[in-house]
Amino acid sequence: LRQEVQIASRNVVEFPNDLPHSLDSLAVGLMRQLEFKEAEQCFTRAETEYRDLVGEGHPALARTMANHGALCIRRHEFERAEQLLRQALELLKVTPGPMHADYADNLTDLALLYRTWNRPADAQCVLEEALHVTQANMDLLSEIQSERQQLATAQLHRERLDLLFGISLDGELDPAVPYAHWLQWKGEVFRRQRLLSALRANSELAEPKKSLEIVSGRLSTLRFAGPGSVWGTAGAESWQTQLAKLESQREELEAELVKKSQGYRAILSRRQRGPDDIRKSLASDAVLLDFAEFT
Q1: 135 pLDDT band (50/70/90 cuts)?
Q2: Which of 115, 131, 200, 269 has its CA 20 to 30 A from that of 238?
Q3: Distances in whole angstroms, Cα of residue 133 to Cα of each of 5, 32, 152, 160, 273
Q4: pTM tops 0.90, yes or no
Q5: Using an 8 Å Cβ cutoff, are 93 and 59 in contact?
């Protein structure tokens, strides 16, 4: 990694992104070896290089700031860690946007900070936002994934659910909050398969269903890729315009399916049910025990 930094330093004019990227990688390696002082220096230099060479708003700067925040957590510099993670979050909110997986990852890092800092209510708040983003991305990917792929994606969501349960217990918070997310998560793949079955049962829906799959595939590819090679003001604006157009098309196609299929509409409505709905459906002298195992 040190040699990589040296090479990147010699080619900084031709490849300006390589130097701060190499410094960030070196800093992460040093942090893992508990060389905190030198890691701090590398992170600081990487942030400076990103700002000087490729601009303040580059999404890679957010990654370095988040890694720097992780170092501060390990050094128990919680206020500095919060500042770095919040700054990274603001950068990611602009590009690649608040529905990107990187944004959810950064929110999770912030939740871990608040948990370590003994601020469970704040941890729960930001982690719920991360779960919202993850759930939305699961919905999008489910349009184009097989059942097995959906189950694998759901496992990533489960890791954040486990963290939410732990935070709730740490801070003696309302258990209904993590349970509501758990309730939605555990039936998600089955619900999606029922939606697909409802669509297959109606031949008139074949065309809008196919269109929804195509648009969802394009949207997921564009959303998860981020601005990428089109970085720059014009490129980022073009990416955001394409993203908004595809999101609008997907909403229109879903609205068409809801309008034409009673079964599709009924299954979607059931997804909104939560703990209160279950409580109301039980007899006054009944108790429902639902076991949730988490790590």
Answers
A1: confident
A2: 131
A3: 35, 29, 17, 11, 19
A4: no
A5: no
